[in-house]
Amino acid sequence: MGEQPIFSTRAHVFQIDPNTKKNWVPTSKHAVTVSYFYDSTRNVYRIISLDGSKAIINSTITPNMTFTKTSQKFGQWADSRANTVYGLGFSSEHHLSKFAEKFQEFKEAARLAKEKSQEKMELTSTPSQESAGGDLQSPLTPESINGTDDERTPDVTQNSEPRVEPTQNALPFSHSSAISKHWEAELATLKGNNAKLTAALLESTANVKQWKQQLAAYQEEAERLHKRVTELECVSSQANAVHTHKTELNQTIQELEETLKMKEEEIERLKQEIDNARELQEQRDSLTQKLQEVEIRNKDLEGQLSDLEQRLEKSQNEQEAFRNNLKTLLEILDGKIFELTELRDNLAKLLECS
């Protein structure tokens, strides 16, 4: 498709009540996307809005349209082709101003495109009318096709030698035949061009008639709209109704803005809670890692303690064995000492006896 979106915004869409022509009727339950489209094949600008699969706005911008700001957040324009008036309620004055600027910009572009198209058609139709008119006014005769003797003379002199009496340097017959074929070909080309110019003239005439009809229709529509505007200005109750509806819309928009603000604050609070939860999770992960390290260290210390207990038990066993051996040695030593004492006593007795 040659139609592409060039600007989009969001707004609540309304249409004038076709029965009363006074009250606004909402065509969308909530804010929808409203876009400017440019059709490069037809060189036109359109405003299109869809609510689901339903087109609630399909308005072609013309140089006669006017976008009017009726409040800080509401604007409207009349579409004579759709025989209705569209209204848009925006969330802020900035969005309304931006939409109005784009409307004026594309309206001016549509006007320039229309002027260029008219100039192009005028330039195309003017030469066609002159050429075709001349061909239609004069009947086709040998003189009009090939020219008179006076008209043919310059062409002949440009393509051949100066005419003299027949001598040895005269042109042969075959060369004259080639020149005749050349002029026959030129004649056929002229006939083709004449037919093309005639067709172009007929097409231009038909287009002019169509444009005149469209212009007359546009003028009638403009007069009807002027009368309608006069009637609307005379009805004072419409102004009160529009003012009341405008007040209700402003209150609704304010309520929606307050709700949106509360939702944004709630979102910020939830974001803070999420950040706090992430910090607590990081702290828990850190403590878990430290606890694992402490448990590993405790296991190492328990291993070392078990090793020390085993070594202590072994040392105690060795000491007990040493004590037992020492007791046994002392008992043996006491026996030997006793035997030595008896021996000494016996020796003393022997000495006394001798």
Which regions have little confidence, pLDDT < 50, spanning 5+ residues?
128-175
| Cα separation of the termini | 155 Å
Query: What's the overall geometry?
Result: elongated
Strand residues, percent = 15-25%
| Share of helical residues | 55-70%
CATH superfamily of one domain: Pleckstrin-homology domain (PH domain)/Phosphotyrosine-binding domain (PTB)
For the record, the CATH architecture of one domain stands as Roll
Structural class call reads: alpha+beta
As for the CATH topology of one domain, it is PH-domain like
Q: Count of DSSP helices?
A: 5
Mean pLDDT across the residues is: 79
Number of strands: 8
Radius of gyration: 57 Å
What's the helix-strand series?
A: EEEEEEEEHHHHH
Instruction: Characterize the main sheet.
Output: 8 strands, antiparallel
The first-level CATH class name of one domain: Mainly Beta
